[in-house]
C-alpha cells in the first residue's frame, strides 16, 4: 500500500508541542466516546474540477491547517496534486468548532 500524504500543519501555539507528529485525519467528538467515529465535517469543500485521485492521495487533495497562537485550529488551504507533483491550491480561513481530535 502506498503511504498517504499527511495534511499540512503549522503550530503557532506556544502552549502545545507537536514536534514529530503528522496530521492525517480530524475526527468529530472525543477520543473516549464509545461507538462509531466520524470525520469532522468541514464547511469548505474542495473544488471537484481540481481533485485528482492518486495512490498517495485517495482524497485527491490535502488540507493545510494552522493551530493559532490562541489555540484555534484553522483550515487555511486545499492543495491539489498533478500526476507529476503539487498543483494549484485554494486559500481558505475556516475555524473548526466543537469537539474534535
Walk me through what this model shows.
The protein is mainly β. It has one domain. 0% of the residues lie in helices and 32% in strands. It has no helices and four strands. The protein has strands at residues 8-11, 61-67, 73-82, 85-95. Strands 1-2-3-4 form a four-stranded mixed sheet, with no helix packed on it. Strand 3 (73-82) and strand 4 (85-95) form a beta hairpin. The two termini are 25 Å apart. The mean pLDDT is 90.
Throw out a few tags for this protein.
single chain, mainly beta, four-stranded mixed β-sheet, globular
What is the fold's blueprint, element by element?
Layout: E1 8-11, E2 61-67, E3 73-82, E4 85-95
Uncertain spans? none
SSE order, one letter for each helix or strand: EEEE
Q: What percentage of residues falls in helices of 4 or more residues?
A: under 10%
Q: Could you give the order of strands across the largest sheet?
A: 1-2-3-4
Tell me the Rg in angstroms.
14 Å
Count of strand segments: 4
Counting helices, strands and paired strands, the structural category is mainly beta
What is the first-to-last residue Cα distance? 25 Å
Shape: globular
Outline the biggest β-sheet: 4 strands, mixed
Number of domains: 1
Count helical runs. Answer: 0
Compact overview of the structure:
With about 100 residues, this protein is mainly beta.
